[in-house]
Amino acid sequence: MSDPAGTEPEGGIPAFLFDGRSAERHAVRLHLAGATLVLEYADGAEERVALSALAREAAGPWGERLVRPAHAGWRLDLPEGLPAALATQLPPPPRYGRWIDRIGLLRAVLACTAVSVGLVVAALTTPQWLGPLVPLAVERRIGAALVGDLSAATCHTPAGDAALARLIQAVDLPGQPPVEAQVIKFDMVNAAALPGNRIVLFSGLFDELRSPDAVAGVVAHELGHVRKRHVMQALLREAGLSVVLAGTSGAVPGQIAQITGLRYSRGAEDEADAFARERLAVAAVSPLPTAAFFTKVAKTEPRGAWMAMLASHPASAARAAAYAAAARTGSVYRPALTTAEWQALSRMCDEDKRVRPLLDF
User: Fold this and answer.
1) Nearest-CA neighbor of 159 among 346, 357, 336, 285?
2) Structure pTM?
3) What is the CATH number of domain 13-93?
4) Which of 104, 159, 195, 207 could form a disulfide with 344 if both were Cys (CB 3.0 to 4.6 A apart)?
5) Would the pLDDT of 339 be above 50?
């Protein structure tokens, strides 16, 4: 056993040497000679190693361990521990890692925390100014690559196409690049803004809303995402195009997941709603049907402060209240579409006999 006083045990320090050249384990005795460690083999042969060439590793089942960083595989295990006389001449073993040991654990934790916070802040804020700088042509190519060809599931009739174009024109900003709007044959109460100035409306939306004014509010909201370049910002914020699929059900076909999978920030959703209310007012379309729609949606939403904090969209009840508050007493509103136009738009997928439901492919 090692001497408490720090002197070398009689007969040397027992150890096992692995020389890095073979798998053989050599039983040796160690002797300290100034700044040199003498390794005495069982046959009497000796090997000298400068203490400056040695380093300590963390202790383990093998006891203490010394290594020679310049010699791969070389290690010296001391099952009875490291005598104080030898330990005082060697650097302490690493506890966490080389650079962490150099600056200290607390400073390393603070540094890593600062870097992590900086990366998170950059990931959340950079897209807000970088997204609008992406050329629209590039965004269109991204949208085509993500979603693919939806033409087989896109409903078309001359009257329905004209009604959809009139609805877009009524609530969109004038003088902007054109928006490509499509009605997709799929029984989902949803609409989505896609990269490249594209909007899709699912046919289930018309069955649920049953009002051209409510559809106008939904369309205006998606136009807000398009005109504010929220789509590109969301792609950048999610740090890669593949995560457009994240957060959607694995049972939902991939193309539907790609269309509906984008997640916007709460601020972007509020901004798109404000855009929609403003454009409805300019078009003299009542916001009350949109408020009624959100009131109905609110009845199916989980409630509570925590759910509101975790939700990607503002609470539907709050959105309903905001749209209701936008209605002005004494204002003269007109329907977003005539009765004939609404019928043409809402029945377009039923009348187009060539269209195929999205689930078919």
Assistant:
1) 346
2) 0.60
3) 2.30.29.30
4) 159
5) yes
